[in-house]
Amino acid sequence: MEILDYFVRITGLKNRNYAARLLRQHGKTIYVGKKNYLKADIAKKGKRPGRKKKFGEEELKLLKKVWEIENYMCGKRLKANFK
Q1: Which of 59, 62, 76, 83 could be stapled to 55 by a disulfide with Cβ–Cβ 3.0 to 4.6 Å?
Q2: If you ran DSSP here, which 8-state letter would residue 48 be given?
């Protein structure tokens, strides 16, 4: 238990069960399907894909200009204003 307490303290993790799972799975290979596999490593944290952009550069400039003209109103009212 001392090792787990130390690990939780130095990593700043809030959940002891999650910390224990990370330590148990370190270095293991987990197969997903026939060809794909995941290698568990605590040092590497997976990067999540960001949200896809709805507007291009030109549209964003135009939208900011309209937002400024409308005195920086909130998004809900601004959206209703376009209809």
Answers
A1: 59
A2: P
Rounded to whole angstroms, the Cα distance separating 82 from 62 reads 13
Provide the H-helix boundaries in the chain: 2-11, 16-25, 57-69, 75-82
Look at the pTM and tell me if it is higher than 0.85: no
13 contact partners, CB below 8 Å, separation of at least 6: 7, 19, 22
Q: Give ∠ CA 38-43-8 in degrees, rounded to 5.
A: 115
Judge contact between 81 and 71, C-beta under 8 A. no
pLDDT in tens, 30-71: 666 777 666 666 666 667 788 998 889 999 999 999 999 999
